[in-house]
Amino acid sequence: MIEAFDWALFASAFLSATLLPGSSEALLLLRLNEGVAPGGLVLSATAGNLLGSLLTYFMGRGGNALLHRCWFRIDQNDLARAEHWFGRWGTPALLLAWLPVIGDPLCLLAGILRVRLLWFVLLVGLGKVARYAALAWLLT
């Protein structure tokens, strides 16, 4: 049975999935160590993290060239290199959106390149739930 939704973990996971630094894994491990059932924790963390990734995706999708160039510091050469990399590895690379350092820019790039939302949610969500479930499984 899944326990109640953990809103603090949800918020931590949400912020961790945006371009802001954070570590929802630490809170997940703390909650598991406190004896909280893993099902609700994995659900809370995955939901928050996926929602944060969607925010980053929509920032890429809806942002204009000025926003990308000035705030995110993406110039045409960086964008061309990223498009080439994404073209080589394809949409399945979104399974790696949970990784530190490359995950957030990958979600932003998916938005810029207008990856279909359904594929984005499925692949990013699968990668994120697998990460949190693996952590929970290793510690229980």
Q: How would you describe this protein?
A:
The protein has helices at residues 7-17, 24-33, 38-62, 65-70, 76-89, 103-112, 117-139. The chain has 140 residues and is mainly α. It has one domain (7-139). The chain is elongated and about 50 Å long. The model has no long low-confidence stretch (mean pLDDT 86).
Sheet with most strands: none
Share of helix, binned: over 70%
So what's the overall shape?
Answer: elongated
Figure out the total of helices: 7
Low-confidence stretches: none
Mean pLDDT: 86
Number of domains: 1
- DSSP summary, beta strand count: 0
Name the structural class. mainly alpha
Instruction: Provide the gyration radius in Å.
Output: 16 Å
Question: How far do the termini sit from each other?
Answer: 15 Å
Share in β-strands: under 5%
Write the element-wise H/E pattern from the N-terminal end onward. HHHHHHH
Brief rundown of the structure:
The chain has helices at residues 7-17, 24-33, 38-62, 65-70, 76-89, 103-112, 117-139.
Summary keywords:
7 helices; 0% strand
Fold topology:
Layout: H1 7-17, H2 24-33, H3 38-62, H4 65-70, H5 76-89, H6 103-112, H7 117-139
